[in-house]
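Contributing new records

If you add data, match the layout below exactly. Sequence lines come first and carry their own label; structure lines follow with theirs. Keep one chain per record. Anything else will be rejected by the validation script.
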Amino acid sequence: MARPRNNPGDLAELPTELRTDRPKGDQIREILENLTRSLAVGTVLPSERVLAERFGVARMTVRQEVDRVVAEGLANRRPGGGTFVAEPRPSRMLASSFSQDMINRGIHPGAKVLEHRVGAADEDLARELEEPIGTPVLHLVRLRTADGDPMAIERTTLSLQRYPGLDEIDFAEKSLYAELSTRYGVTLGMVSASIVAAPPEPGDAELLEIDKSTPCLIITSAPRTAADQVIEFGRSIYRSDRYDITVAYRAT
């Protein structure tokens, strides 16, 4: 990801005043959107104070529109570094592997293993995995990156009774779904998921290198094989300022 440049967007390119026949917030948002499309990735945008003074509006009005542009993924905030033009964010099909999806877009996927632990399924987890209580499971937590930039924290649990030896694999170097396919013959079938927009927990925000107020996507899912067997139970957090989730479905 390009780092913020020190030269803010040229104010000469901005209108000198707002129209009186349209809401001021809408106009400021359009100005910011146009700036993010015309300036190079990493260029620092004019500050909230500068924009508020130029257009004679409350700083809170400007902040609300900056928040919207950030939520749309057109700009990023960096603590102490201002707001800058963001790189176009990748979009992932929900029913796909993170690694393969990034590779398909010419982006290098990466992973840092934060937790790799064997445990036993309690009542709730056994129900989600459709396995007996006490079944040995692998708890796997990874920080996922795209070209080195943090994108998501994926937390998942898999049955070691169903996938014996899975706990012996180093998933800092291996794709989970590639290993499931080659070692265990897993073919992805139906994926149902709950997607909720929410701010990150403080620890997750630090790992993702985002502000605590940045909206994130919390995805809870239990994908199944083509034979209708639960593959994993996961609850992951994705940066919504850098990532889109695409859901494909067939109307009946």
